[in-house]
Amino acid sequence: MIEIDNNIINPELLLEKIRKDVLNKESEKINISKKADYIEIKENINRINEKIKTVQLHAGIDLSEPIISNKGIIGLIIVLVKKIIRKSIRWYMKSLIGQQVRFNNSMVSTLNEINKKIDSLILNNNE
After folding, report:
1. Which residues in 83-121 are b (16+ Cβ under 10 Å) and which e?
2. Interval 61-103: pLDDT, tens
3. Domains in the chain, number
4. Alpha carbon 110 to chain centroid distance?
C-alpha cells in the first residue's frame, strides 16, 4: 500500500482539485455540444425560412398563363382548342383556384407563425 505524506501533499486538496477539473471538463463538453446543436438548429431554421419564402412566392395561381405551341399549323389548332376549353371552364376553375389560393395563403401564414414560435423558443432557451 502507498502511504502519502500529508506534509508534502494534502490528499483532500488533491481530490478537490481533481473533482473541479473533471466538472470543468464535463461543463466544457456540454457547452460545446450546446453550441454545436445551436448552430445546427440555426442552419435548419435558415433553410426553413428559405422554403417558406419559396412557398410564399408560389402561393398564388396565375390563370392568365399564355398558351403557346411550336408545331406550326397543327400548333395553331391546338392553341385555339386550348383557348376555347380554358374559356369554357374558367367560371368553374376560378372558384376552385380561389379556394386553393386561400388555403395556400393560410398555410404560409401558419408556417410563418410556427417559425416565429421556434425563434422565440430558441431565444428563450439561450438566455
Report:
1. eeeeeeeeeeeeeeeeeeeeebeeebeebeeeeeeeeee
2. 877 788 888 888 899 999 999 999 999 998 888 888 888 888 8
3. 1
4. 13
Task: Answer yes or no: are the C-beta atoms of 35 and 29 closer than 8 Å.
Answer: no
Q: How confident is the model at residue 126 (pLDDT cuts 50, 70, 90)?
A: low
For residue 62, being part of any structural domain is answered with yes
Any domain includes 6: no
Q: Is residue 3 part of a domain?
A: no
Please report whether residue 114 resides in a domain.
Answer: yes
Q: How far is CA 106 from CA 45, 113, 117, in A?
A: 20, 11, 17
Q: Is the sign of the CA dihedral 35, 39, 44, 46 positive or negative?
A: positive
The pLDDT of 28-52, averaged and rounded, is: 71
Q: What is the span of the domain harbouring residue 39?
A: 11-126
The amino acid present at 124, given as its one-letter code, is N
Predicted TM-score (pTM) of the model is 0.54
State the amino acid at position 32 in one-letter form: I
Query: What are the grid coordinates assigned to 73, written together?
Result: 399549323
